[in-house]
Amino acid sequence: MNWTQVIDPFNNIALSALVAVVPILFIFWALIIKKMKGYQASLIAVGIAILIAIFVYGMPLNLALLSTANGALYGLFPIGWIVITAVFLFNITVKSGQFEIIKHFMASITSDRRLQALLIAFSFGSFLEGTAGFGAPVAITAAMLVGLGFNPLYAAGICLIANTAPVAFGAIGIPITVASQVTSIPEMAISQIVGRTLPILSIMLPFYLVILMSGIKRTTEVLPAILVSGISFAFLQWFSSNFLGPALPDVIAGIGSIVSLVVFLKFWKPKNIWRFENEPAATINLEEKYTTGQIIRAWSPFILLTVMIIAWGMQPIKDLFNSIGQLQFEFPGLHNVIIDKNGKPLPHIYKFNYLSAAGTAILLSAIISIPLIGLKFSEAVKIFGETLKQLRFPLLTIASVLAFAYIVNDSGITITIAQALASTGFLFPFFAPVLGWLGVFITGSDTSANALFGKLQAATATSIGVDPVVTVGANVSGGVVGKMISPQSIAVAAAAGHLVGKESELFRFTVKHSFIMLAFICFIVLGQAYLYPGVIPKYQMLTANAVAITPDLSKGYTYLLVLALVLIALAAIIIFTNRKITNNKIPTLTVTK
């Protein structure tokens, strides 16, 4: 038996929206005021959403429970799978002793915490976002910063805030691809409008991060490095998004900013090395030197991770893996049972793509790394078990957060809030980013937010005489600043930053910055809509094409062969360069107080 979503249960969109926003307001209240643990706040929010769905929206009990279960399952895989494998890869690097060499190497570039944050949280995190997305960048970079000695709260918070700049072009441009699919606006046009909005934020973000860490006075001490990092990233993000498309801006900008800053630091150093308050000042023991082979070996898990993630992002490999390693099924009792406001049934197909999932690429990177970094597989199995134990509460939080996302979407609660914002008329371009922000806050994904609100954004803009690419781009851009406070992202960062049970502290650390950046983007979009029409790209709407293209699986095998050769070559280089090492003792940083 089918059930049709009710968008305005009180026949008053403002009143309906006030009720619809209650579960979201509860999350803010629980984390900011009551300082609840993440999984507690999420589970209670799920309960509130279910009650509103049933008693206000008239959603049948069985559909509400099935929708919740579907979301929880999606939270465990693929999202939870990424977190498990990313933290596992980091843990084996630490337990093998190789992270000590990475710390030494980073300190040899700069032992200044401000610049380390720019290199890892901002630039390397952006690169990872461009290749993997879906939580992996925050998990890996937060764990790395904590391993380097960062205050865990600052490490996780900085990584969440830094992750705003690249989210729109994450996972090889998937958020923009999805926005194009649901709106029929060309990918290139959306890429261009987003690429004329976010670079402004990207220039500001390094300043923002360093000010958060050390204050304005200490920020001015590293102003040249901040400018190099921000300007190089913003320029490459603008150039690639406007002339190459949405697939590579994060990869190109991330690598470009790393290279630019590292080269710059060869010729310039800050006068004062800044570290956290009460943190002992570390110095490098100049008597102990690392060979190139030792450094490559230490970095090998992350080098392999980079290669594997890039390979997994290639469509031929995805197609091949999905053809031989994917289980999918229609969710029983839920698939095509809920009818949306346009009379279309909502599909609920669960895909267990165990080969093509990003988490699998990370796991394989870890497995290949085990012998290269000097661990036994028996030791790695033990570390994997410890990792699962370490992440039991974060996984519960992630599952409950995704359960919440599914129930508020399937019941129509989210659409009610969207309709209320869409009724703002002339001011809608100002509120368009808020929809994207809301979508990412709920779902944890800019891709999902674009799928959820893209069509509404385009239709509303057209009705008020604004070019729809402006508001669709606003949905993408607004979503990026919702990522830092999404309960899903908070759970991932807390897990990687050893802050389990302290999600409320992390939420309070990031929430005001999310609102500040959201307001900034809202004004930019309002200006694009009415004051600066010249920034709007010229384009033609896509025509509907129902032609299904059968993937060429032979390409996938070719790509896999190339990947195998690259991995063999990397392993050979790591083994060969370490044959000359006679002293296997791992030097450590000399710490002075």
How would you portray this structure in words?
The chain starts with a strand and ends with a strand. α12 packs antiparallel against α13. The protein has one domain. Strands 1-4 form a two-stranded parallel ribbon. A two-stranded antiparallel ribbon has the order 2-6. The protein has a two-stranded antiparallel sheet with strand order 3-5. The chain is built from 25 helices and six strands. It has 593 residues and is mostly helical. The longest helix is centred in the N-terminal third of the chain and has 35 residues.
Radius of gyration: 24 Å
Structure classification: mainly alpha
How much beta, percentage-wise? under 5%
* Strand segment tally: 6
Count of the domains: 1
Helix content: 55-70%
Low-confidence stretches: 582-593
Distance between the termini: 70 Å
Contiguous helical run count: 25
Average pLDDT metric: 84
Strand order of the largest sheet: 1-4
Choose one word for the global shape: globular
Largest sheet: 2 strands, parallel
Question: Topology of this structure?
Answer:
Elements: E1 3-4, H1 13-20, H2 22-33, H3 38-55, H4 61-95, H5 98-109, H6 113-131, H7 136-148, H8 152-162, H9 170-183, H10 187-194, H11 198-221, H12 223-243, H13 249-267, E2 281-283, H14 292-312, H15 315-324, E3 327-330, E4 338-339, E5 349-352, H16 358-372, H17 377-390, H18 392-411, H19 413-422, H20 428-443, H21 446-463, H22 468-480, H23 487-496, H24 503-530, H25 553-578, E6 590-592
Helix pairs in contact: 1-19, 2-3, 3-4, 3-18, 4-7, 4-16, 4-17, 4-18, 5-14, 6-7, 6-8, 6-9, 6-11, 6-12, 6-13, 7-8, 7-23, 8-11, 8-23, 8-24, 9-21, 10-12, 10-22, 11-12, 12-13, 14-16, 14-25, 15-25, 18-23, 19-20, 19-21, 20-21, 20-22, 20-24, 21-22, 22-24
